[in-house]
């Protein structure tokens, strides 16, 4: 089996996004078993079904759908906005699920990581996101769950995880996700 390519979806647009910094750490801890490609969600217009129905889908939607189809799995790393999924990420899920019957998400293994400067680590966002992933037929890794709270204290000035204990936890997550991806992809062959 070739190295699976994983689409990385960051739920934040901030230049200094904690979610993006954690995603980079996760990628580096994946033991070379997976290849990662971050998807730029900043160019996506808000979803409007009329544009699909009228054959006027924006070029950004068309390119996004083509790109997502090429991935073997998905890694969602997200902050929490008001106890829910950031609109940026939800919009991407909606665009990829349409037009009806042409979803780009079906059957590909996913993982959800919550990131927050607060203590709860994005729990609400993760739970809401998982609900959408069920409907989109993204089999999502159940354990270990990952809610990275108090993230500002975990990273150094370069965005690298400071403590070995935290690195070990993130590595455990990526080992489990790598196993999940390989298991589901081997079942499809």
Summarize the structure.
The protein is of the alpha/beta class. The chain contains six helices and five strands, in the order βαβααβαβαβα.
CATH superfamily: Flavodoxin domain
Are there runs of 5+ residues with pLDDT below 50, and where? none
Sheet with the most strands?
Answer: 5 strands, parallel
Mean pLDDT over all positions: 95
What is the third-level CATH name, the topology?
A: Rossmann fold
Rg computed from alpha carbons, rounded to a whole number of angstroms:
16 Å
Number of self-contained structural domains: 1
In terms of structural class, how would the helical and strand content be classed? alpha/beta
CATH architecture: 3-Layer(aba) Sandwich
Helix content: 25-40%
What is the number of beta strands?
5
SSE run: EHEHHEHEHEH
Percent of sequence in beta strands: 5-15%
**Span from first to last CA?**
10 Å
Broad CATH class: Alpha Beta
**How many DSSP helices?**
6
Spatial sequence of strands, sheet with the most strands: 2-1-3-4-5
- Overall form: globular
Describe the structure.
There is one protein chain. The chain has 189 residues and is α/β, with parallel strands linked by helices. The protein has one domain: Rossmann fold (3-Layer(aba) Sandwich), CATH 3.40.50. Helix content is 40%, strand content 13%. It is built from 6 helices and 5 strands, in the order βαβααβαβαβα. It has a 5-stranded parallel β-sheet with strand order 2-1-3-4-5, with helices on both faces. The longest helix has 25 residues. The mean pLDDT is 95.
């Amino acid at each position: 089996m070739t190295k699976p390519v994983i689409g990385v979806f960051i739920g934040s647009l901030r230049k200094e996004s904690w979610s993006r910094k954690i995603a980079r750490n996760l990628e580096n801890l994946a033991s070379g078993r997976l290849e990662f490609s971050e998807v730029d969600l900043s160019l996506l217009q808000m979803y409007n079904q009329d544009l699909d129905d009228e054959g006027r889908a924006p070029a950004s939607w068309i390119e996004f759908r083509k790109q997502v189809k090429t991935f073997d799995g998905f890694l969602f790393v997200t902050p929490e906005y008001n106890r829910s999924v950031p609109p940026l990420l939800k919009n991407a899920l909606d665009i990829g699920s349409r037009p009806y019957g042409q979803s780009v998400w079906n059957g590909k293994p996913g993982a959800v990581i919550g990131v927050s400067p607060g203590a709860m680590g994005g729990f609400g966002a993760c739970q809401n996101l998982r609900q959408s992933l069920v409907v989109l037929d993204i089999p999502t890794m159940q354990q270990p769950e990952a809610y990275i709270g108090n993230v500002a204290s975990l990273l150094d000035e370069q965005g690298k995880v400071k403590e070995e204990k935290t690195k070990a936890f993130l590595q455990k997550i990526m080992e489990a996700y790598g196993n999940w991806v390989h298991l589901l992809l081997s079942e499809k062959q």
